[in-house]
Each structure stands twice: as structure tokens, then as C-alpha cells.
Amino acid sequence: MSQKLRELIAESVTLTKDTRRLMGQENRGAAENKKIDENHTRIGVVVEEIQRERAQVENERSMNRKAFELEDDLRKDGKNDDPKEQRKKIFRRYLIGGRNEVSQEEFRSMVFKGDNQRALSSDDVAAGGALIMPEEFLPELIKFIDNSFRLKDAVRTLPPTTADSYGVAELTADPDDAEMTPELGTGSDDSAMGFQKRRITPHPAAKRIKVSNELLRIAVMNPEALVNERLGYKFKAVQENKIINGSGALEPLGFMVASADGIDTDRDIATDNTAALIDFKNLMRAKHGLKEGYWPTATWQMHRDILSHIARITDGEDKFIWEPNTKIDDPETLLGKEIILSEYMPNTIAANAYVYMFGDLSHYWFGMSQEVVIQVLSELYAENNQTGYIGRMKFDGQPVLSEAFKRGKMGAA
Q1: Residue 216, CA distances (Å) to 140, 210, 213, 387 in order
Q2: How far apart are CA 71 and CA 49, in angstroms?
Q3: What is the pTM of this model?
Q4: 67 and 155 in one domain?
């Protein structure tokens, strides 16, 4: 009897005795009745565990008994067989029990045949290689690290809509300043104040993947779950890419694309930069070129290659100007403001190239009319024994306030 089975039986006996004692009391209260109910419930659980444990013990005994019988048969078998049959049965014992199950003489008879050594080898099927499992496939996936999408998460995401588009009124110009007037004067009529409607219209994006039905049937990992996960990741990737680099034509308008509908060239700053070098003074101009009211939530957005370039800027004494953060859990900062890195930001140092953005990303609006939906096509590719997966979503975005951004640019020469 196993130790666990002994403990379960002892617990069952104790619970039964306690229950009988409580039930024998003449004036039982609510606490005693509750304890009796708890004991009955626990006894039922313990009895089930005892039955499972006994079944397991009996199963182990049966397996051991069969193993002993097989071992005894193997030892008795083959006494009067010819040498070839004896070697086969010795080899069977060796496979089942290992080297300790055969004597030195039996092992030599298995390995040697007459004066010739039998070359048992793992790379020869006939000489033992067939005994080796061809391959063990691990339920893991080796892949490159996923890109982070901190920039996409930092923009303002509007609540999903079932309408065709989002519309919002935009103040394009303030009224002129008030004028000094006589006591009873009312000032001149204003003609400067203006409005317009800004529209964000989600556009469709889609991706299709076909997977072999045989792979779906026999794969160690779950191909369907992997396809769903990777499709979701790639939709996040295209969102961040378009937020930065989108043309605005049936797709989001990126903030690194000069446009009168988003951030125009009047927000570019190339002063002090050359075609090959970013000057630290240019970064200071970018920060101070933004109104102070945007500073609390403004961040730098750039590619890691551009940050590497900035990190190597030195002063007149050849000392590095930028001081990287030494705290592991805190983000990198530049001139006191957080740096958001993105693999989709431009990383080319060349004449007139855009290289970074400094601004308040809450003034980039991103909206969806359909979040990611993955459709399974079980029959469409049946002739090819494949199942199709189509991911779809609809989204759009654009910078809505140009003055909240300053875009860094390389010099012309």
C-alpha cells in the first residue's frame, strides 16, 4: 500500500468518527450541523481519491507482474535454440533491460560473430540505426524579436465607430487681437476667425495566409493559433508604419510626410545640421521651437540608428554631449523628454532627409471602424488541401494640430 493511500484511508476513518460523534450529540447547533455537512462533502472527495489511488496501485502491480513474467520468459526462452535464435533473444533482453540484463559472454555473442566484429552503428539502418527515433520536434518556435509599438500606443485612439467616418470641427484661425477703444467703442468687425471640418475615414487593410491541412493535423504546435497571433502582430505593424509614413491616399497620413493636411514644411527644422551630421544645437532648437504648453506630454520619436548617431555627438573637447539613462526600467530621455523608438521611423542620414520628430502624439488621431477580424476559409482551397485565413480591419489617422510638432531634417550640404 502506498503512503498516499494510507493517508487517505486514515483521513476517511477520522472524518467518519468525527461525523458519528457530532451526530450522536442530543443538542446539536448550527455549527455542528455545518461541520457534519462539510465532513460528508470531504468524505466523498476522499473516497473518490482512494478509488483512484487503488486503481493506480493495481495498475502498477499488473504492469510489474507482466514485466516480471516477460523477463522470466526471456531468461528461460532460447535455451535449446540454435545460436542465431539465441542471439536474437539476447538482443531482445538487451533492448528491454539494457546492458545489465545480459552477461558479458552474452553481450560478446551479440556484438561478435565468430572472429568478425558486428559494427552496430546509429547511422546504418541495418546495423541498429532503425532503433533510433528519427527526430523529436520541440513545441517551440525560433523567431526574431517582435518590434515594439510604443509609438502607435502613444497616439490618440478614437473609440471604434460604425459610421463611415469621424468628423470634427477645426478652428483654422483665431480672431484678431482686441483693440484699444474709447469707453463706448466696440472695436472693428473681425474677419480672421475661421473653421473647417476635418474628416478621418477608415480604409480597409487585409492579409491572407494559406496553411496545409496536413500541417494542421500533425503539427506539434497549433498552426491556427500561430497564424492568428502573427496576423494580429502584422496588423499592428502596418498601423504604426502608416501613422509615421502613410501617404494619406486611401491610408493614414503619416506625421513624417509633409502635407498641408497634416504637418507642413513650416514645422521642419534643419538649422545647424549638415547633410551628414546632426548638430546638438538643432535638437535644442526643435525642443524650444515647440510652445511650452506642449512640453509636458511631448516626446522624441526616432529610429534607433538616429539615436545612435545622436549618442556619438561630441563637444569641442571630444566629450559626448548626450548622457544615456543608467536605470534599466526607465526610458531613455533627451533634453529631459522621453524618447520613443520605432523601427518604422526613417534612419537614413542624407541631404534634406527627415530624421526625427519632437511633438505631442496626442494630437495625432487614429480611428477604426473595424478591429482585426480573422476569417477561416475551410472549403475555398479544398482542392489544394489547404485552409485559408484572412485578416481584415479598417483604420485611418492623421495629425490634427501641426503646431504640436517639430520635424527634424538634415541640412542640404
Answers
A1: 16, 11, 5, 9
A2: 33
A3: 0.64
A4: no
For residue 158, the enclosing domain spans 150-174+192-409
Residue 107 lies in a domain: yes
Give dist(CA 44, CA 38) in Å, integer. 10
Question: CA 188 to CA 274: how far, in whole Å?
Answer: 48
What are the backbone dihedrals phi and psi of residue 280, each rounded to the nearest 5 degrees, phi first? -60, -30
Q: Are 46 and 11 in contact (CB under 8 A)?
A: yes
User: What is the rounded distance in angstroms from the CA atom of residue 396 to the CA atom of residue 155?
Assistant: 12
3-state secondary structure of 350: coil
CA 76 to centroid of chain Cα atoms: 59
Q: What is the pLDDT of residues 98-121, one digit of tens each?
A: 667 777 777 666 655 544 445 555
Task: Place 373 in a pLDDT band, splitting at 50, 70 and 90.
Answer: confident
Specify the 3-state DSSP secondary structure of 410.
coil
Please check whether residues 162 and 88 belong to one and the same domain: no
Place 329 in a pLDDT band, splitting at 50, 70 and 90. confident
198 by Cβ neighbours in 10 Å (0-12 / 13-18 / 19+) ranks as middle
Q: Closest Cα partner for 1 from 54, 59, 48?
A: 54
Same domain, 168 and 94: no
Q: How many CB atoms neighbour CB 258 within 10 A?
A: 16
What is the distance, to the nearest Å, from the Cα of residue 46 to the centroid of all Cα atoms in its chain?
42
Query: Does 181 reside within a domain?
Result: no
Q: Is residue 139 one of the residues assigned to a domain?
A: no
81 and 168 in a single domain? The answer is no
- Residue 408's Cβ-count burial label (10 Å; 0-12, 13-18, 19+) is buried
Could you tell me if 7 and 127 lie in one domain? Answer: yes
Report the domain count for the chain: 2
Whether 372 and 313 map to the same domain: the answer is yes
Provide CB contacts within 8 A for 53, sequence distance 6+: 2, 4, 5, 8
Confirm if 308 and 334 have CB atoms less than 8 A apart: no
